[in-house]
């Protein structure tokens, strides 16, 4: 999953695989600034990431903390990997259940398999919440 | 939820260090199984590498019990003679498969066979799938005797060792042997199933073996067998009840007698672990938590019939649907053992021991909650063919 690198937003209409229906303020489109000599626009691919709102990430962190009974001072951030935090397979299933309950969503197996970090979970949640209200 | 859960313990750099494991429809106890790897999906393409049946993918750990603890089992031999061997039934008092099958030496043989087949016609395919799966599990007995003989301190060193443990293992094996024989002969005579496919499945399964992750450690080993014997007791008890409801009293007796053996065995194994809790509470509670974390894998989880890569999952789903053996049973067994061994009351544990105690005592409710959620979200499952019944389909 692409992550925001803070590059300036340059949206090239020629070579995008990005379907833009709704651009929310949280979506960052990364582009590569074209060097002046001959880079073919056709070969450019935009990688789009929709990074979740910080509040979502925070909610995920707190659900994870609760499930794993982590002490208050132990670091849990977007980058935290579930396995590194000590979650076993049962914990992870329960975490996802907790997220489903908290956000009113239903997580499909295929999506769940790609959740490695807190950020991944938050991003998926936002996507599912958006789909639900669409 | 519709998540699938199959705990992946595969240690490969190719897999992400963590991925939310796919959850089998929580309608099956597969949730609690070690994952398996199929090395091929179809018939052999490459003659140089003949198809390999499913094999375990987790790293196989050995001899995790500190060697000084072997002494414990040596010192318990007299105790075992007086307290465990008493659960064996003398051969002269045991039922034999002959007692529940048409008698070939009698004039009424053909008539008896006809009756058996007529009763079997009334029994639906999904029941037969479960009965066949149970039979195949029983027929893989060589794997289980082997497993008992991997346990340090209690293994049969020569095949005819006279330690109480070795005597137990051989006699236990001998009792169990009748189960597979009886079910095999019944299924053979019934005419309702494809014996060749079943026989193939048995051959594959014995070839695959299994690693229940007991690590040559009798603490882990006897906790595992305690759980398993109760599981088979429940399972055969349910098939007995179903057979009765379906009007086949003889089949009900068959399953019922097998179930009562399993109950007796369960009592013996739980008694061993009870003793271990008494003399080494910390070590035993740690072992209990360890086995539960690793999940109790079903003995036949590597089953394969040469055609279906998801055979065990499909079989489990049918067993779950029929209520023969379910995820709820798994939680119930766990709770039964926690109570039987009075894990909550143990004191004087180390810090690790207390964590293990908390884990084990809190686990059954968590499993039940998961199971309830999954049931609430269960989607319509497909119908799948089983080669054991000539590719007729059964609703999962």
Automatic annotation (TrEMBL), chain B:
Cofactor note: Binds 2 iron ions per subunit.
InterPro entries for this protein: Fatty_acid_desaturase-2, Ferritin-like_SF, RNR-like
Record EC number: 1.14.19.2
Protein family per UniProt: Belongs to the fatty acid desaturase type 2 family.
The keyword Lipid metabolism is assigned to this record: yes
Subcellular location per the Swiss-Prot or TrEMBL entry: Plastid, Chloroplast
Taxon lineage: Eukaryota, Viridiplantae, Streptophyta, Embryophyta, Tracheophyta
Positions contributing to Fe cation 1 binding: 138, 176, 179, 262
Record's keyword annotation contains Secreted: no
Required cofactor(s): Fe(2+); Fe cation
GO cellular component: chloroplast stroma
Protein name as catalogued: stearoyl-[acyl-carrier-protein] 9-desaturase
Species this protein is from: Hibiscus syriacus
Residue ranges crossing the lipid bilayer per the database entry: none
A molecular function GO annotation: metal ion binding
Chief location category: plastid
Subunit structure: Homodimer.
Classification via Gene3D superfamilies: Ribonucleotide Reductase, subunit A (1.10.620.20)
Example of a GO biological process term: defense response
């Amino acid at each position: 999953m692409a992550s925001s690198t803070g590059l300036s937003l340059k949206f090239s209409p020629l070579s995008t695989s990005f379907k833009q229906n709704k651009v929310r303020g949280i979506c960052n489109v990364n582009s590569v600034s074209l060097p002046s000599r001959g880079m073919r626009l056709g070969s450019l691919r935009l990688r789009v990431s929709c990074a979740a709102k910080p509040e979502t990430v925070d909610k995920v962190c707190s659900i994870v903390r609760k499930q794993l009974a982590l002490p208050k001072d132990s670091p849990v951030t977007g980058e935290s990997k579930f396995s590194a935090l000590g979650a076993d397979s049962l914990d992870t299933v329960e975490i996802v259940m907790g997220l489903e309950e908290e956000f009113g969503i239903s997580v499909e197996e295929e999506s769940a398999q790609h959740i490695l970090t807190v950020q991944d979970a938050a991003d998926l949640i936002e996507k599912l919440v958006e789909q639900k209200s669409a | 939820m519709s998540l699938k859960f199959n705990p992946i313990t595969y240690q490969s750099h190719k897999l992400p260090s963590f991925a939310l494991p796919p959850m089998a429809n929580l309608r099956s106890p597969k949730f609690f199984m070690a994952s398996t790897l199929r090395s091929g999906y179809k018939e052999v393409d490459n003659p140089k590498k003949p198809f390999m049946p499913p094999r375990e993918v987790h790293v196989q750990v050995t001899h995790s019990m500190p060697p000084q603890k072997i002494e414990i089992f040596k010192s318990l031999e007299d105790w075992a003679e007086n307290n465990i061997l008493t659960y064996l039934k003398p051969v002269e008092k045991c039922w034999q498969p002959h007692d529940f099958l048409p008698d070939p030496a009698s004039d009424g043989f053909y008539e008896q066979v006809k009756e058996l087949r007529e009763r079997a016609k009334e029994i639906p395919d999904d029941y037969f799938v479960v009965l066949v799966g149970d039979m195949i599990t029983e027929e893989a007995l060589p794997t289980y005797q082997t497993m008992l003989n991997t346990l340090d301190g209690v293994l049969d060193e020569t095949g005819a060792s006279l330690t109480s443990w070795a005597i137990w293992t051989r006699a236990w094996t001998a009792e169990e042997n009748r189960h597979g024989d009886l079910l095999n002969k019944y299924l053979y005579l019934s005419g309702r199933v494809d014996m060749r496919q079943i026989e193939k499945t048995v051959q594959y399964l014995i070839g695959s073996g299994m690693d229940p992750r007991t690590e040559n450690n009798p603490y882990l080993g006897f906790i595992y067998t305690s759980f398993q014997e109760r599981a088979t007791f429940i399972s055969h008890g349910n098939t007995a009840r179903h057979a009765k409801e379906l009007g086949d009293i003889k089949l009900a007796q068959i399953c019922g007698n097998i179930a009562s053996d399993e109950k007796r065995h369960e009592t013996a194994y739980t008694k061993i672990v009870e003793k271990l809790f008494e003399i080494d509470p910390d070590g035993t509670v740690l072992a209990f938590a360890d086995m539960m974390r690793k999940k109790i894998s079903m003995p036949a989880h590597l089953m394969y019939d040469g055609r279906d890569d998801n055979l065990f999952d499909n079989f489990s789903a049918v067993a779950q649907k029929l209520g023969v053996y379910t995820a709820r049973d798994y939680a119930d067994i766990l709770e039964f053992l926690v109570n039987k061994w009075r894990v909550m009351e143990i004191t004087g544990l180390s810090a690790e021991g207390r964590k293990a105690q908390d884990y084990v005592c809190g686990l059954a409710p968590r499993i039940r909650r998961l199971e309830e959620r999954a049931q609430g979200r269960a989607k319509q499952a497909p119908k799948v063919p089983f080669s054991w019944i000539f590719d007729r389909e059964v609703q999962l």
